[in-house]
Amino acid sequence: MKKWIAPLTVVATLLGGAASAPSYAQTAAYPSKPIRLVIPFPPGGGTDILSRLVASKLTENFQWTVVPDNKAGAGGTIGIAEAIKAAPTGYDMVMGQKDNLVVAPWLYGNLPWDPTKDLVPVAHVAYTPVVIATAANSRFKTLADVVAAAKAAPDTITYGSPGNGTTIHLAGNLFEKAAKVDIRHIPYKGSNPALMDALAGNVDLLVSSVPSAIAQIKAGKLRALAVTSAARSTSLPDVPTVAESGYKDFDVSTWYGLFMPAGTPANVVTLMNSKVNELLAKPEFKEAIHAQGAEPQAMKPEQFGNLLKADYAKWKGIVQASGAKVE
Fold first, then answer.
1. Cα 308 to Cα 300: distance, rounded to the nearest angstrom
2. pLDDT in tens, 20-37
3. Is the peptide bond before 31 cis (omega within 30 degrees of 0)?
4. Domain edges within the chain
5. What is the C-alpha separation between 272 and 274, in angstroms, rounded?
6. In sequence order, what are the residues at sequence separation of 6 or more whose Cβ sits closer than 8 angstroms to the Cβ of residue 234?
7. Residue 79 CB coordination number (10 Å)
8. Alpha carbon distance 136, 42 (integer Å)
9. Binned average pLDDT, 10 residues per bin, the chain of 327 residues
């Protein structure tokens, strides 16, 4: 028996090593083919701009091939569903943010997925305040001008947003409540149509992510009246916050980050997180994000997961109180 046990032990050890070898090989080789980055919104908006920046920098700095893929519709939920149904191999990821992961589940109510269970948080990229702006030739010079006009003629001032139930729409709704005014919301299908109508004067105000509006603000075609974060935007340092404009403790911002389907190997998640955080530590990458109106912020996957869960619980009440409905 002894003379058989020793050889069998060696064989078992070798087989065990062979069984574990593919996992090691896959980690060592990753990525061995292009990685798809699903962008759940149309080209030109804040999510699209940041997604393409991340894809290009991952490609440029690490010689990976990251391919952006716009899958827009239904408040960003179509793109999220596309990522969730992908094989959890690390070759499909999605740029998620508050609109499609925190707000949409409470807005739609019947989505067949749960962001806290069906996705793995990979890397937080940035956060951005919402900006309240108006055309450069508008009669409104300050937020106080808007409030005065809205109080004098309720429901006559209009503001455009990227759509019903988006974080941006809800930021406008929260401002209405804080200022005790009634401003008419005009929802659009994406950031660009709202922006174009604001520039044309077809709506009085634009409520937008900073990345979507900053180019027109810098060009002098839009006048930024306020940002909704607690602190001023690094990209728009001369623009006051809503809180500074007289509405104490007002603080609304949105975040952007990478997610992969649940079941993606932990070592792939850790590797992608380390690469994105490495980018976020580079001054030139920070500057590129600031240039788009966002604030870079690195997190470990666990931290990002905690942020998602906390916001998911918090925004349920905000969505319900707003009365927002899907068209």
1. 13
2. 333 433 456 899 999 999
3. yes
4. 34-124+256-322, 129-227
5. 5
6. 290, 295
7. 24
8. 26
9. 41 39 52 97 85 96 96 90 97 94 88 96 95 97 98 97 87 95 93 94 95 93 96 94 95 94 98 98 94 92 97 92 77
160: left (phi over 0), alpha (psi -120 to 50) or beta: beta
Can you give the pLDDT at residue 3? Answer: 43
- Torsion sign across C-alpha atoms 172, 177, 179, 181: positive
Q: What is the rounded CA–CA span in Å between residue 111 and residue 75?
A: 12
Q: What pLDDT does residue 28 have?
A: 61
Beta bridge partners of 187: 161
Amino acid letter for position 253? S
Place of tokens 């600031």: 290
Locate 2 and state its tokens.
């002894």
Instruction: Give the other-Cβ count within 10 Å of 302's Cβ.
Output: 10
Whether residue 294 contacts residue 73, with contact meaning beta carbons closer than 8 Å, is answered with no
Cβ atoms of 119 and 96 closer than 8 Å: yes
Could you check whether 34-124+256-322 and 129-227 share the same CATH topology?
A: yes
Q: Which CATH architecture has domain 34-124+256-322?
A: 3-Layer(aba) Sandwich (3.40)
Which helix (H) or strand (E) covers residue 147, if one does?
helix 143-152
| CB-facing half-sphere around the CA of 218: CA atoms within 13 A | 13
pLDDT for 152 equals 97
Domain 129-227 has CATH 2.40.50.100: no
CA distance 263 to 43: 29
Q: Judge whether 301 and 121 are in contact, CB under 8 Å.
A: yes
pTM value > 0.90: no
